[in-house]
Design brief:
Elements (H helix, E strand, L loop, with lengths): L4 E5 L11 H9 L4 E8 L5 E3 L20 H4 L18 E2 H8 L4 E6 L7 H18 L5 E5 L2 H10 L4 E6 L8 H7 L3 E4 L6 H9 L3 E2 L7 H9 L4 E4 L2 H8 L4
Parallel strand pairs: 1-2, 1-10, 2-5, 5-6, 6-7, 7-8, 8-9
Antiparallel strand pairs: 2-3, 3-4
The protein binds SN-glycerol-3-phosphate and calcium ion.
Length: 248
């Protein structure tokens, strides 16, 4: 394929509540190539899908994700904030989400750092993600990414081949190539506004796939595709598909 991959940011979050089953399902129906989602640890050390570690913005309730059990969180409404018609959406474990996606598309699991408060949490997070991928047969369909260097290093120390992506929001000039080499990264996920032909060439020279986030306008799609990125992380799945001329 010589077009950028369509990577649905938190599912089809431009039209549906982010990180919900309906947002993932609609993204697949709209022919995304990959789904990006966010993961935290619960109080009882399960993997829960959500962006914020605090409830309140997209999830009804208050407090932190790691002060609640998986079963408590699975009762939480995470759709009403977006529109009343999505009030049936409940928080999901990563396992539930991967089972529902059923290997129809690739998945970019972004590990969030806020609930990783001790070395033990890093170990549990790494073990849980890796064992789930094995259990469900997702190895060839997964990229694990994080802004947190420590979790990426931990995972690589436990698994030599799983695909790892480095998330970056800092300078366009100082890319994390030492980390790239240390963890044998597969991909580099930079803020799209930081990308230019020079740093993309440097990433490609390192053998990396370049997956910028989060581009939502035709102007940004034009810029990124002219720079030969390998995928575009977007909330606007259909707009990107139309821009790329992908037939359905
Ligand atoms: O993975 C790219 C992007 O999702 C990183 O930022 O805050 O949307 O998780 P955020
Ligand atoms: Ca994310």
């Amino acid at each position: 394929m010589n077009r950028p991959l369509i990577i649905a940011h938190r599912g089809y979050s431009g039209k549906y509540p982010e990180n919900t089953l309906i947002a993932f399902e609609r993204a697949i129906e709209c022919h995304c190539d990959m789904i990006e989602l966010d993961v935290h640890l619960t109080k009882d050390s399960h993997l829960i899908v959500a962006h914020d570690h605090l409830l309140g913005r997209t999830v009804n309730g208050r407090g932190a994700i790691d002060s609640l059990s998986l079963s408590d969180l699975q009762k939480k409404d995470c759709g009403s904030w977006f529109k009343k018609e999505f009030s049936d959406q409940r928080m999901s474990s990563l396992k539930e989400v991967l089972i529902k996606i059923n290997k129809r598309v690739s998945v970019n699991i972004e590990i969030k750092h806020e609930t990783l408060k001790s070395p033990g949490h890093y170990k549990i997070m790494a073990e849980k993600v890796l064992s789930l991928i094995e259990e469900l047969g997702y190895r060839d369909l997964i990229i694990i990414s994080s802004f947190d260097e420590q979790i990426l290093r931990k995972i690589r120390s436990m698994d030599a081949t799983v695909r790892l992506g480095i998330l970056d929001h800092e300078s366009e000039k100082t890319l994390k190539f030492n980390l790239v080499r240390d963890i044998k990264a597969f991909s580099y996920h930079h803020n799209h506004i930081r990308l230019n032909s020079k740093n993309i060439q440097q990433m490609h020279n390192e053998g990396l796939k370049v997956y910028p986030y989060t581009a939502n306008t035709v102007k940004s799609f034009e810029k990124l595709s002219s720079l030969n990125v390998d995928g575009i992380i977007t909330n606007q799945v259909e707009d990107l598909r139309e821009f790329l001329g992908v037939k359905i």
